[in-house]
Amino acid sequence: MQALTTRSKVAVDKKMTLKERLYLPAIIGGMAITLKHFFMKKVTIQYPEQTREFAPVYRGQHVLKRDDNGAERCTACGLCAVACPAEAITMTAAERKKGEENLYREEKYASVYEINMLRCIFCGLCEEACPKEAIFLTDRKVDSEYQRGIFVYGKDKLVEKMDERVDVSKRQTKEVIEFKKHPEYAHNQLNKSLK
Ligand code: SF4
Ligand code: SF4
Q1: Per-residue pLDDT band at 30 (split at 50, 70, 90)
Q2: Which residues line ligand 2 (CB under 6 A)?
Q3: Whole-structure pTM value
């Protein structure tokens, strides 16, 4: 019979030798391998007490940014939701009322904005699609939970806190910053600060 690969092995039902029947040499051999690994450099770490250094391009939990005055940048245009391949983003748009200019930068804002972190694949397409510099992925990790519902993050978890601004400037390459200097994006005040 012709073998399908060159790696196939013929199984033989041969009798065990005395050494094999004693088992002891095999046990000693196994222990020697275990002992050898005690002195080798560990490839594992004690997570979560220890963490590895993240790559500069790591994409973790999203943030919905505020502008320099603290107003929410998102205008509920829905482009991030359309761009999302995992259909993880949903939102409800609302009209800004008089006197709310300090809360929302545009005339329209997201009264509800949710991301299902279990669906999200952290591809970053929402960030790329956003014309308002409103959504960014960050180096923060999504917390582990025991209930699925908790993974639907609303504005309470996504919008950055006034006293805890999230610095996303490290994620902006020189090329991206140059590209965004275009007058069309002037309203984003990117060049003032992204903090
Ligand atoms: S990172 Fe990708 S998958 Fe996650 S919400 Fe944004 S577009 Fe959707
Ligand atoms: S985050 Fe950006 S793309 Fe998404 S709805 Fe808000 S403004 Fe539009």
Answers
A1: very high
A2: 74-80, 91, 129-130, 132, 134-135
A3: 0.75
